[in-house]
Amino acid sequence: xxxxxxxxxxxxxxxxxxxxxxxxxxxxxxxxxxxxxxxxxxxxxxxxxxxxxxxxxxxxxxxxxxxxxxxxxxxxxxxxxxxxxxxxxxxxxxxxxxxxxxxxxxxxxxxxxxxxxxxxxxxxxxxxxxxxxxxxxxxxxxxxxxxxxxxxxxxxxxxxxxxxxxxxxxxxxxxxxxxxxxxxxxxxxxxxxxxxxxxxxxxxxxxxxxxxxxxxxxxxxxxxxxxxxxxxxxxxxxxxxxxxxxxxxxxxxxxxxxxxxxxxxxxxxxxxxxxxxxxxxxxxxxxxxxxxxxxxxxxxxxxxxxxxxxxxxxxxxxxxxxxxxxxxxxxxxxxxxxxxxxxxxxxxxxxxxxxxxxxxxxxxxxxxxxxxxxxxxxxxxxxxxxxxxxxxxxxxxxxxxxxxxxxxxxxxxxxxxxxxxxxxxxxxxxxxxxxxxxxxxxxxxxxxxxxxxxxxxxxxxxxxxxxxxxxxxxxxxxxx
Length: 480
Known about the structure:
- It holds the Pfam family TPR_1.
- This is Tetratricopeptide repeat protein.
- It is a single chain.
- The protein is mainly alpha-helical.
- Helix content is about 80%, strand content about 0%.
- It contains 26 helices and no strands.
- Helix 4 (about 75-100) runs antiparallel to helix 5, helix 8 runs antiparallel to helix 9 (about 170-185) and helix 14 runs parallel beside helix 16.
- The longest helix is centred in the first third of the chain and has 42 residues, at about 30-70.
């Protein structure tokens, strides 16, 4: 068809389009013949135009019908796929930038738009999981990490992220499994090694945790989390000065690590450097003023400095954040005892279930020995191995000897039974010898009185009472 059409056009041009020089060299007769032919062509021109128009329209209609039957207008697979990929990548980059700026909610919104263009994009899964993790929505984050892992089962950053979520959900043993998967892929991944150490630390496996922190730091000595956590292990080993060395290393890298600042303050408390401890705890509180543990630790320092009213203020702040903080309740009760507010102390300590033994201390101040003992029984019913309860129920070396409740009630054998239970858990007590020396001094004074008057009945009675106490103390000493 194209060839016939081209032949028609070429023939018309050859016959009816003549050059100027041809006209100049033609005779009059030749010119008349050309004009007659041209006039005839004009008549044919309209008919040819109509025929071509009709045929063109017919062909166009045929093409359109065929186009519609093939449904070529409904979807262009290649073009749409290309646009989707481009838009998805563009939105991904925006989401990453927002995540880097810690605008996690906005990053998730952008990422969701990206998933509309490409709902199977694993990178978008990972970005959304990371944002949810940082928003502390760990269960939701795990769902998206799992989707990413289905596409990239060997991608260590995704595996590590899933482990981190499990760690914050306090599923430490399960979290370790995921960190170990990363370590199996890359034995020198220092962050996963350190994270495994954190799990062991949370499981109170301090020696094992310390080993893994050392492994992580041997690969990368600049991981502040590993440095701080090693310091925490050393605190558990009671190596407070050594712990401070590692905490200082962590703070040299990240000076706003509130946990490291707090742990350093705790070390200084143990080293009895209370004013220095307060300086570091204040730094921790400046970063995170709503951390109950930091407030409680500062209150403990103030107790050591005999600033009981000020200490109570910090314990009360801690309790507004965590009303079940046993340590804050216990320390507040201790302050109230020091301030001789015994009834208030009982109300406070009654809330600290694992420290009910201190209520007995307060009741004894009020000479309510019989009322004190049931509190021990309640506490021990909750935790038989609570050393503080056992110690206060039968141990003369307590700062207020609760064992005297039983002795005051003339229940010496029962007191000894409680000493046995306490000593079975903690067979040593450095304060017992001091008490023994006091009883021996007392006996010497009574003996002196009896030399003057051998029938002085009060001295005889008091000497007998001291001997009774001494029997109990000697019973403890043989285990020390």
